[in-house]
Description:
Layout: H1 7-31, E1 38-39, H2 48-51, H3 60-72, H4 75-87, H5 89-93, H6 102-117, H7 120-134, E2 137-138, E3 143-144, E4 154-156, H8 163-173, H9 176-192, E5 203-206, E6 213-215, H10 229-246, H11 249-267, H12 288-302, H13 307-327, E7 354-355, H14 356-370
Antiparallel strand pairs: 1-7, 2-3, 4-5, 5-6
Helix pairs in contact: 1-14, 3-4, 3-6, 3-14, 4-6, 6-7, 6-8, 7-8, 8-9, 10-11, 10-12, 11-12, 12-13, 12-14
Bound molecules: glycine.
Amino acid sequence: MQEFLTQEEQKWTADSFEKLSQKLEAECGRLKNKIPYIAEDGHYQIDWAEKDIAWWTNGFWGGILWQMYHATGKACYRNSAVHLEEQLDRALQDFTALNHDVGFMWMHTAVADYRLTGNHQSLVRGEHAASLLLGRFNPLGNYICAWNENRPGWMIIDCLMNLSLLYWAGEREKDPRFAAAACRHADTALEKLMRPDGSCSHIAILDPQTGELLKTPGGQGYAAGSSWSRGQAWAVYGFAISYVHTEEIRYLDAAKRAAHYFLTNAAATEYLPLCDFRAPEKPIYYDATAGACAACGLLEIAKHVSETEKRLYQTGALRLLRALDERCCDWNPAHDGIVGNGKVDYHGGTEQQSLIYGDYFYLEGILRLLQKDFFIW
Length: 377
Ligand code: GLY
């Protein structure tokens, strides 16, 4: 258990893990080989292995399963995780549907498996995915190209999270090309996506021949110049991850600036973040997934700052996680999905939903407080 927690906070953390365990064991039994994404009416109705095996969120259930296997040693989690990883081979084989999100897909599955069990086939899958990601690097503009469909100049803040796959492959293979591409992408994100106040754009469209910045559209946020909260969370955690792998202080500084901006804005809605911090007052859309992801980033930052600074990030993370528990979580083990009040996209309908990555980051956050997490990134 993290030492900074009071007795009452320790109890809350332990109770939260107990509730997570009950819920996840029940889900694991119900899902069998389904790949979940959005819980609708308390159930994962769609199997993403059938609907779209290349979908970017298909690794998060694997991340949940490996975290639970690491924390509890229960075989049910490992067996399901191995099956999910094998299903993803179809996506690797028909790689044309894959994009920059191969990090989210294979860090949580094959690379986690390799790290925890040493399975050789998992190592091969992870290295295959890392090579695909490296292949998306544009050396003229120094960024990893986002998505497909004739968008060669697009880069996005989310991709900072996928850089872990490059750092991992480079460290393993002792091949500097991987980290060089990752750092150049992170530096371009610093220059083109981050703003002086600590907020960021979701998307930058660059001239793919020169890297010149052409446009910063609103992406999944409200509009150009606004501040999509999940994008802000990707910046908090994503720059922290680049710092972990490189020890370049500019990445820690960027993560801290993004964190200060995030916390200031989340405080205005009692730590359940709005979907966009710069949207009109109404309608109100929250995005709990942003709070869960940012909390993990804050706890990572806290490991790398001085004793006097730590408290800000630790307290912020705890407030974000507790707000989710108090205002968003469904703890009924008969229902699928844990953290509600998620939003895929500001303009994508009016529904608030339970999204698999919200559950992943909430679990990682609680495990971090318990000091039982496995560093997937
Ligand atoms: N990476 C896509 C999203 O955050 O929705």
